[in-house]
Amino acid sequence: MKWIENRMGQTPPADPKIVGRKEAGKARDFHRSIPSYAETPLAELSGLARTLGLGHIYVKDESYRFGINSFKGLGGAYAIGTYLAHRLGSDIRELPYETMISPEIRKQLGEITFVSTTDGNHGRGVAWTAQKLGQKCVIFMPKGSSPERLAHIRALGAEATITDLNYDDTIRMAAALAEKNGWVTVQDKDWEGYTDIPLWIMQGYAVMALECFEALEARKIKPTHVFLQAGVGSMAAAVTGLLADVYGADRPKVIIIESDQADCYYRTAAADDGSLHLVSGEMDTIMAGLACGEPTNLGWPILRDHTEGFISLEDPVTATGMRILAAPVPGDPRVISGESGAVGVGLCYHLMLDERYKDLRTALAMDADSAVLCFSTEGDTDRNNYRKIVWEGAWAKEAKEKKGKTIV
Ligand SMILES: Cc1ncc(COP(=O)(O)O)c(C=O)c1O
Predict the structure, then answer these.
(1) Are 78 and 186 in contact (CB under 8 A)?
(2) In this structure, what CATH number is given to the domain that contains residue 226?
(3) Which of 53, 112, 166, 335 is the most interior residue, by most CB within 10 Å?
(4) Ligand 1 pocket, mutate which of 377, 378, 380 (most atoms under 8 A from CB)
């Protein structure tokens, strides 16, 4: 596990308002018009906090989101909704979900094909939205993607395939096909000339942070530490931006976590030379949602200017988190958390109980006065793998043998 303090922040810091309270509130108004929208639970793990020597641990449980087992639908649905509103010359505020799926609107819009690249969760959200709208959806998944996650997407009526390319190269292939076929790309990653939809996706994600902020405020709790896992970094930037907007200079310490196989933010902070350092090639990690080597350009200034630092870590840390959440301390609620969801809790466990991380724990001021917030961004989205890790402990053991390293 490697840590780098963020020394890149610029003055004045990037304005977080693009994903601030106002934009998140607007996105939530749209989400609220979707019948299956409900605020997801914020689990309080008091027993675990006591065990680790922390004041509080809160875990936002996104396995309950829209019945699709991850937070990702928040972004896909809002981005597609906003795109359609613009296409109709309207505003998302005038196009609630029921109107959007009506036969009249379907007729006005004609046939649209949405296309996206995904490790599973984002594509499931896009396919789910397209199905509700009665529109077509084409999904590409990078090499090594889970057959179970592919099946979930196909079950929503999308045409979905696994490519032999990594995530970032699959995005480029899908964008070229979209250009050729007149499809609408719904991607979390932005590039030159393609920024609207990635921004709307981030604004949709910010709703998850807004729900947390309000739930904690109602309990008169201000988080001191927030752990956010990053793939592209759109989710982390959305949550960081919302927190920076609502708490201002008094914001909690935000720590970004990446897989050591795709640690573009860690490398960028370590180099600290003003440019982004990408990761390419195969990214062999069980944290499929974090296997992205190219950061969001839109969210990057927020992460650069409003975070404490970056941690690059190995798979067994998240496996620990999955098991802790599956078998909680008596009295704590159980959280079913998948490979990309449990890493924050796994990290807290190691930070607090492993003496090798004493200095880092002290530097981050993590102690009995801390209120830690983690995001379990997915449930058991690959049930087979979930059981291998949680029931059999298989993956961590295999990983240890494969890499010839100790657990952390
Ligand atoms: C479950 C889960 N958590 C976290 C992430 C990371 O989100 P982002 O790519 O915006 O950094 C993903 C992305 O696919 C994911 O599926």
Answers:
(1) no
(2) 3.40.50.1100
(3) 335
(4) 377
